[in-house]
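Sample pair:
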Amino acid sequence: MRTIISFTSMALVLMVFIVTPAYSSGGGSKKAHKMVTIEGGEYVTISGTILDSHKEPVGEAAVGVRLNGHDIMEAETAHNGHYIANFMVERDAMSDASLELEVHKTSFAAKAMHFAGSDFAQKGDHYFLAEDVMLDRVLGPAFWISTIVFILAYVLIAFELLHRTVAAMLGGALMMLISYTIGTINPDFRIYSFERAISAIDMNVIFLLMGMMIIVGILKNTGVFQWCAYISYKIAKGKVFPLTVILMIFTAVSSAFLDNVTTMLLLTGVAIEIALSCNLNPLYLLVPLVLASNVGGTATLIGDPPNIMIGSYAGLTFMDFVVALAMTCVVTMVVLTFFVKMVWGRVYSKAEASISNVEEFTAELKEKYKIYDMPLLSYGLVILGFAVFLFLSHGYWHMEVSVAALAGASILTTVALLTKKIDLLHMIEKDIEWPTLMFFIFLFILVGAVEEAGLLAVIADWILDVSGGSYLISMTLILWVAAIMSAFVDNIPFTATMLPIVAYLSTVIPGAENTLWWALALGACFGGNGTIIGASANVVTLGIAESQGHKISFLGFMKTAFPFMIISIIICQVWLMLFKPA
């Protein structure tokens, strides 16, 4: 019963976010106005788009119309910034009319524009005027409140003072509460509306993660990942360094197609057991695997959460990521191999000398790590292959990657249920990481608030001013800032913050094209290798190790991982300068 209630609660919360209707996506007003009919009168239509200083649309802006000093009507812009005001006037009133168009919204300076009747185009009894309006940002109470709440939520997440899902939910809820209480009394304190908060959620990211969690959750019931660890040991013939390299390659490739968090969840326990059997401190094996997982996950759209977010926001395809980043990741993996040999080579050699009977231990692993459900594995691999095909070709089908993931997950779940291979409620409760999905939902709401209030616009303007509009400087800034920040703050919230900033810079800096997106992806993903809290895969892996008595300190991990992170970012810098992938 508790399982059913838990799932039902989560499903209901998720459905609220999915089905809550946002305001019209068309060019009309959110508010419905009944036009007053005047016998023999003239129709007037004023329309256009409200933009900010970055030429981005401003939604939910109030557009008021005054005729000869009298208020006629008020409209509200849709999320794409479009507005349309329709009204009627007395016959011949437009010939000497004086109209005023006033636009205002919290965090923007109000703007008024004056027109005469002669400024309108006329067709019969219908007068038309198309007028776009640009608003300037104002750093008012809504800006400062949203910034403070955002920073506090960030601190709670970064230093793990509160569970990150709860911290993000607290921040988002607090911003909406202030908007609807104090903001109702004084509009200067209104940060954003509930509709704007819901529209900020990227359901493509949510559904992609959910689909991949289901697929991997079913596949792990076959024993395939433990079997792969046994095969790696067998191929290495008991040699610890070759074993480490094989496991690193397997981890990197798996992370590219499954995602690095899931890969490390599945491999950590097996890696610890193999390390102990080789008389090796498990941390000497786990740290290289974590580094490899973050490098491998960078190569594809679905390998690392920051890439999923970037791809969804920028409209980049699976193959765009592979073409632009895969070779960089291959080069970095080669460098990582030499780095691991240099740091732990002597430790591996000492462990090899302590293994007395390789053949006996290999036989023991073979007996222990078997594939115990070959039919389900066969179904799973075929369906996973189909999903990967859709990932590779989703640009051709004009299909979101989440559709491919959900299609694969639903088909595999159906097959597993019909063959009675899984417990549905157990899969829903245990294999789908609901806290992670909810974290993403509230994180999108949190970032949407500071975007609405203008914080991200201020940061973008700062980067643009510092770079002087130079592609090289802006690319370098994004790459290194992303890397350093992601090392000390979880790269997921940092990436969410940077998305609209990079989108703006990509449009105003000559020659930037998609390269700034690759700089953000490489910086956020590789930067996650810098510290224990830099990436979710790090936290998951070392958390499991600590629960089994193998703890590494923050500085102990950083002493080894941070230098490699710096080396990998230097490789990215050179790569982006020389090849500038489009």
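Strands lie at 42-51, 62-67, 70-76, 82-89, 98-104, 111-116, 121-123, 126-130, 133-134.
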